[in-house]
Amino acid sequence: HLSPRLQAVSNYVKPKASLADIGSDHAYLPAFLLSQKVISHAIAGEVALGPLENARREIVAAGLQGSLIARQANGLDAITSADHVDTVVIAGMGGLLIADIMERDFKTHNQRQFPYLILQPNNNERAVRKWLIEHHYCLMSETIVQEDEHYYEIIYAVPGHQELDLLDLKYGPYLRRERSEAFQRKWNGEVKRINLILGRLAQAEKEDSTPYRQWAAEVRQIQGVLQ
Ligand code: SAM
């Protein structure tokens, strides 16, 4: 049983995929996909010892020693060409870290590309989209899910060419056109938060200040996207 966030990530994994889950921690995602027989083998990559041990414990508990390998490695170093990985998942980290991990691999492994990327940044989604389109990936689909007060965006990308404008990068080219309920809740929440800031600035008679104008412009942009 996965959380709604990881469930949404897992929905993008194709049957029989050769999967690497980078920053896997407990390896819940690959363990679930293996137990459901969606895939037949996977790699769980972890840079840190504690999470690596979590993954190893989960593998033994689920009896997946034959099909799920946990490797201690920095980012995509967990994957060698002999693995024939076609699907890379990086979930549950900041967008800057995800972009960093992708960039390091791109540089150190001769610009290798993967057929399917499933990326779930916890923040800074823009940095992930920007990295993708600047490195010959094309976004195929996006999902936003809510868990408690958090909104998580999942980006599914494949090699290709795409042009995104500033609004696409920030709000998501698909998300901002679909305007799902979760998407509207996320950005309406942001408007509320900014309006509190604007209220405080107004109370301090700072309506003419640069921050006030910038926050007001941000609200107008969000409202334009939500319309
Ligand atoms: N992917 C799981 C999920 O979505 O629930 C676990 C997310 S957990 C919050 C983030 C994990 O990424 C941590 O266990 C951390 O050790 C790992 N991590 C951070 N930087 C990494 C890197 N450069 N390479 C591999 N793993 C990394």
TrEMBL record:
Keyword Cell membrane on entry: no
Source species of the chain: Eupransor demetentiae
EC numbers: 2.1.1.217
Alphabetically ordered keywords of this record: Methyltransferase, Transferase
Protein name stated in the entry: tRNA A22 N1-methylase (TrmK)
Lineage top rank: taxon: Bacteria
GO MF annotations, alphabetized: tRNA (adenine(22)-N1)-methyltransferase activity
GO biological process: methylation
One matching Pfam family: TrmK
The keyword Transferase appears for this protein: yes
